[in-house]
Design brief:
This protein is α+β, with helices and mostly antiparallel strands and about 50 residues long. It has a domain of about 35 residues. About 15% of the residues lie in helices and about 30% in strands. A three-stranded antiparallel β-sheet has the order 1-2-3.
Length: about 50
């Protein structure tokens, strides 16, 4: 079995950019210029409990 590498969201303290980080590969992708821009891209899920 192949173990999945954990990815997590982060906000850069200096730039305010929302990032998707992968600590295993040191990969950092910019998802949005700021938190408000990132939140505006979220869509509600119809599956319980209604998470985004």
């Amino acid at each position: 079995p192949v173990a999945e590498t954990p990815e997590f969201y982060a906000v850069d303290n200096q730039s305010g950019e929302v990032l998707l980080e992968n600590p295993a590969t040191n990969d950092r992708r910019v998802l949005a210029a700021d938190l408000a821009s990132f939140i505006s891209t979220l869509r509600p899920s119809l599956a319980p409990p209604g998470l985004y």
